[in-house]
Specification:
Helix content is about 10%, strand content about 25%. It is of the alpha+beta class. It has a single domain (about 1-155), classed as Cyclophilin-like (Cyclophilin, Beta Barrel). The longest helix has 12 residues, at about 20-35.
Length: about 170
Amino acid sequence: MIILHIKDFGDIKIELDRKNAPISANNFASLVSQGFYDGLTFHRVIKGFMIQGGDPNGNGTGGPGYSIKGEFRANGVKNNLSHKRGVLSMARSQMFNSAGSQFFICDADDTFLDGQYAAFGKVIEGMDVVDKIASVDKNHADKPYKPVIIEKAEAIDEEIQPIEKM
């Protein structure tokens, strides 16, 4: 289990899906265990769609310095986890194998993303926190006016394997 402690909002508890997206799930757990996400923000929030975080630059351009394989149908990988409300998925650029650390949590059923993005977990507790984050005031680029900060991310009983980098 992964717990994201969000300053002034509460906790989001996540169960990783290592069956459908083992590379993405392991990458996320590894970054959490290294403290990578501590102090980072949710830099993009769109109510009725998703909240996105995990960028060390805070603007959608950053990552961990490497990328991983995109685990979704359009990239030749069978992934049966649908982008329903509460599902965690890897953000990426137009290039299929460009995901690194940025992730998003669906705050609605976003099944049109199925087969195009690597869903790799789901919120098991704390959707009220996701909904509060999705509702914050933001600018024209969907960036919250007041930073939404991941104070700490914890990996609890998660086995960490070496990351399969591209």
